Each structure stands twice: as structure tokens, then as C-alpha cells.
Known about the structure:
- The chain is 16% helix and 35% strand.
- The chain has six helices and 28 strands.
- The site of heme C has 27 residues, from helix 2 and helix 5.
Amino acid sequence: MVRRVRQSFSPIPWREVLVFFSVSLCLCGSLLRAQNTTEATKNYHNENQRMEVSFAKQIAPIFQAKCVGCHSKAANMGGFVLSDFESLMKGGSHGKAIVPGKSEESRLVQMIEGSVQPRMPMSGELEAQEIAAIKTWINQGAKLDQDLGQLQALHEPEIPKIKPASLPAQVGAIAFSPDGSMVAVGGYGEVTFFDAASRRPLGKISGITEAVRSLAFSPDGRHFATGAGRPAQEGEIKIWQSGKEFWTKPAGQSFKAHRDCVYALAFAPNSQLLASTSYDHMIYLWDPATGKQVRPLKEHTDSVFDLAFSPDGKWLASGGADRTVKLWDVATGRRIHTLGSSTEGVNTVVFHPSGKFVAASGFDRTIRIWDISGNEPQEIRAVIAHEDTVLRLAYSPDGNWLVSTGWDRVVKIWDAKTMEQKQVIPDQSDWVLCLTFSPDGKMLYFGRYDGSVSVYDTARYQLLGNLLAPPSTLRAGK
Ligand code: HEC
């Protein structure tokens, strides 16, 4: 479990994932212990009320041991950095986490006590006396020890900044070049290009901000774009002029695109527009040649996780944490329809190659298909597809098959018309975070959380080989 929550890497909604885990993890423990904890806290609190709590000696070691792993400058979860005093007092994406003198009003306390979810630390609980010490320190004014001056007690954890040693580089995005000759694989801070025929690496782009969550070639083959960024800080889009060994050249456009990570990118079928979504609730359309914003699409009330253009380029479909799939008129930026039947957040949205159907799925494990060919969209299918959250969907280029992947580490192939299950590819070495068909539809590529990329044939769905092999050694959590 711990390995899942160390960093956010993929086009899937990590923060929702974490909340989900932590809630389920914490509930049983906290219910059982609730009474003892309160008693112990009270006693400790009373006994220590008059003693000055030392930040350096008593509080910093708790933060250092239990929090900094996820709240370092590099990890920056919740936009909250605990590895220096100034950042600690500044707070996170919800503002100040500590109100000096008022522990009850401090978000940090509410979160370590569990009255605000997700309970912190994400992967466990603090001891009652640790919580009590933090509360007393806040009630006493949340001060830095006077004799210490510039604080020494907190520091960044000693893990390489690029990739924590315990983590493989998740493959969060994968795409074929339109001519089918190569495959782009997005890892942490970099994209590797493979020759599709020989499966050998051709070259690499690096210098991307944190995890590559999305990448796309324009259908005319002239542009290649990546979406990435820093959680709760900025989204980043880079666009290259595609062409021979273009990865050896710098990006033509590189800009801050959102106020949070870019989760999905898609080029319009005519290659004239690039659409992006983000955790910041926004969708933007961009001119890929200039990097200029064409228009914002603003109606989602929560993070937007995925989007897709209709094959004729007139419509854009988007889905996100607000449980809706929205259909937009690309030319005007107006929302035409909201498809609101999902009961939980939507992770993935795809158009059928005919343009007549939209399929979506996510946390409610259900694949829903809407017929959008009439005046009003009709939900024509709702199939509980996986035992756990559905991560990705993809239609085969001929439109006959729909592929789904889930947290249950299973990939399923469905008859796109009847939604009968045609094939199951079980026991994936890890979550399949991204997938793509080769343009001729003969092969299917999976990119996984453990950093592996595998190739399957679509005649019998057998493993043909790996671009990047799964780690064969012991993996945590198994
Ligand atoms: C395993 C990772 C992990 C650990 C360990 C962890 N956190 Fe967090 N923390 C997160 C994540 C992820 C978020 C963002 C949650 C969200 O936005 O839903 C967060 C958010 C927060 C926030 C809210 C910031 C804001 O403004 O939104 C506070 C406060 C916080 N953590 C305090 C702590 C403290 C104190 C500890 C140690 C006792 C701790 N955390 C340990 C992962 C972690």
C-alpha cells in the first residue's frame, strides 16, 4: 500500500486513490481505538499543559519521521511542504494548516485526528502522545525554539529527487506515432521512443516536470505534446515539432498550462487544436503551432481526468471527479450535454470510431455507453466491468472491441456492440495505467504502474514481448 502513495505519477487521479485507501484503512483502526486515544490525549494534555513543548526536540522529529516522506519539496502532496519551518507555517493547497494558539481550528490537527479526511499520515496513525504534543505546541503558539535560530531539525528526506529509490518509474502514458513506426512511452520526467518493429529504444526526451501523465502525436504527425506538472502548483505542456529524431531538439513550446498537473491531452482530428485537462477543474484548448490559448472550457466542478475528441472534431467529451461526462461544442466552447449517471468519479472517456457512441468508466467500476447520434444522448449500456476501479478504456481502431483495465490488475476485451466479455487477460504484473492499439489494430500495448510496457497480439491476446520488462524481483505489497 505504501508504495502506492509515495508519489503521483500517472494520468489517474492519485489523490482520489489515496483518499479512498486512507479512508478504508483508517476507519477500522480509529473506531476501535477512538476511546483510548481520547483518554490518553486528555491525560497527556493536562499533564503537559504547562511545560513548553520544544518544536525542535519534540515536534520536528515526528514530522520528520511520519510526514516529510510525502510532504517534502519533491513529493509535495496536498501542496504542503513540511521539510522547513516556513513552509510548514505557510500551509498547503487549502491554505494555512496551523492556526497558532488554536489547535482545534488547525487543519493539520483535524487531519491527524481524522475529523477531516484523508487522515494523516496517509499510511497509518500517529500515537496519541504524538498528537497531544503537536496540539500542545500549537496551543502554546506554534513557535520555533528561540535558541535554535534557523531550524536544523527538519530537512528533505535523503532520497534521489528524480525517483525515490523504492519506486519504479510508472508508465503513465503511451502513444503510437500516426504512421505506426514508433511508440512513445512516458515515465518520470522523460519520454522514451521505441521502434515499433524492433522494439528497440530510438531516443529520449528528458527534462519534463515530474511524471508524464499524458502524451500525444498530432494526427498529421507534425506535433508531439506532453502533459505533466507539479501537484497543486502548476501544469506543464511541451510541444515539439515532430520529425526525424525530433527528441534531440528542444521543445518548440513549453508553457505553464494549468494550476495543477495536466492529466490528459488530445489533438483534434484536424491537428489544429490541442485540448488539456487538469486537477484544477479546467479544460483548455490551445493552438499547437503557437502555444496560445484558444479558449477555456469551464463547467466541471472538480478535477477533470480525461478527454477525447469526436472523430469529426466537432465535439469534445470530458470526464472527472464530479461524476459527470460532459460533451462540448468545440467551435463555441459551449457545453451541449452532461451525462450524469456515473455514481463516482470518471477516470476515462473515449469516443467510438463511428462517432456515435461515448464510453466512460471510473470509480463505480461500471462501463457506461451513451448513444449520442440522436438529439438527446441515451445511455444504452451500463456494465459492472471490474472488481475494482476502472482505470482506462480504449476502442480498437475498427470499433469492434472495447478494452478496459482496472485496479484488479485485469484487462478485459468486450464486444463493443453487445458488451459481452470476449477475453480476459488476468494477472497483470501491476495496474495497467495506459494502453494503446497499434494504428493497424493488430497489437495492443500496456503501460503499467511497475514501469513495464508489454505488447499483446489482438488475434489471441497473447503476450508478444516487452518494451520494458516487469521487475521480476520482490515487489512491496505482494
Ligand atoms: C503517504 C503519504 C502521506 C503521509 C505520510 C502524510 N501525508 Fe499529509 N497528505 C498526503 C496527501 C496525498 C495529501 C493531499 C490530500 C488531498 O488533497 O486530498 C495530504 C494533505 C495533507 C494536509 C492538507 C494540506 C492542504 O492544505 O490540503 C495536511 C495538513 C497534511 N497532509 C498533514 C500531514 C501530516 C501532519 C503528516 C504526518 C503526521 C502527513 N500529512 C503525512 C499524503 C501524506
